[in-house]
Amino acid sequence: MIRFLDDSINRTIKQSKNQKVMKTLKLIPLFMLFVLASCSSVRVNADYDKKVDFNQYKTYAYVKASIDKVEISDLDKKRILNSIDDAMSAKGFSKSNNPDMLISIFTKESERVDVYNNNSWGMGFGWGWNPYWGMNYNRVYSTPEGTLFIDIFDGKSKEMIWQGEGSGYLTKDTNKKDERIKEFVDKILEQYPPIIK
């Protein structure tokens, strides 16, 4: 009788462990999809002066002195400025020598480090002994991540009226830089002009 109870308890424990392993294995593809989606997206944020009437702004120009100080290649600066021009033009704004607003950019780069720790259990087979074996490994991945700030100032008062920020992975692939920078700029400028509630 006692042996029957021991066998029954052991079977229940093994079934419970098997169910946990299967649930964990089912969640891995969902987790990987989340990880891949988070790597490819641009996270944006915007802030603005709530006292400003943004309907008064129709034209813009760049603050050349501050853009010259940005520590990225001149090619990437051109990519950013061209993308801003495209996005602003699509919103009905135009460049001017006597602008209503001034635009400046700022960038920073950092290394994003992700550590994946797998403290899970796998299954094995056997008779009369514990059929489980352990796996424990860590994987470290690093990805260059950049942040682009787009600052907009009132053309007359020179006070900041809006700031947009976008963060995400960077690419060194020259063929993909135009597309990636355009994605950053478009996502950030989706927030401009702000919708005041």
Description of the structure:
The protein has helices at 2-40, 64-69, 74-90, 174-189, and strands at residues 43-48, 59-62, 94-95, 101-123, 132-154, 160-169. With 197 residues, the chain is of the alpha/beta class. It has two domains: 1-40; 42-189, 2-Layer Sandwich (Double Stranded RNA Binding Domain). A six-stranded mixed β-sheet has the order 1-6-5-4-2-3. The relative contact order is 0.19.
What's the SSE blueprint?
Blueprint: H1 2-40, E1 43-48, E2 59-62, H2 64-69, H3 74-90, E3 94-95, E4 101-123, E5 132-154, E6 160-169, H4 174-189
Parallel strand pairs: 2-3, 2-4
Antiparallel strand pairs: 1-6, 4-5, 5-6
Helix pairs in contact: 3-4
CATH-derived architecture of the largest domain: 2-Layer Sandwich
| Secondary structure tally, helices | 4
How many beta-strand elements? 6
Poorly predicted residue ranges:
24-39
Which shape, going by the Cα principal axes? elongated
Q: How much helix, percentage-wise, in residues?
A: 25-40%
Helix and strand sequence: HEEHHEEEEH
CATH classification class of the largest domain: Alpha Beta
Strand content: 25-35%
